[in-house]
Amino acid sequence: MATAIYADRSASISELKKNPTATVKSGEGRPVAILNHSKPAFYCVPASLYEKMLEIIEDRQLARIVRSRLNEEEVEVNWEDL
């Protein structure tokens, strides 16, 4: 059965063990699929991309909260009262 690989580059676990930094760099800023017996075991993601992913996730969570509150009644707030 074929397995989808969601990365342009892949490397074996042995390659990762030999030279982790080179494996990450081979992805040129994108994820690298780490294969075990020709199947993806996990994805190696550069720190900068991981940070962007977390920001996107947080933005989507905040957007979901905003959408859920769109029809709520407005509350008047006076800056001096804060």
Automatic annotation (TrEMBL):
Family membership noted in the UniProt record: Belongs to the phD/YefM antitoxin family.
PANTHER family in the cross-refs: ANTITOXIN YAFN-RELATED, CYTOPLASMIC PROTEIN
Ranges that cross the membrane: none
Organism in which the protein naturally occurs: Sodalis ligni
Phylogenetic lineage: Bacteria, Pseudomonadati, Pseudomonadota, Gammaproteobacteria, Enterobacterales
Protein name listed in UniProt: Antitoxin
Biological role: Antitoxin component of a type II toxin-antitoxin (TA) system.
Domain of life assignment: Bacteria
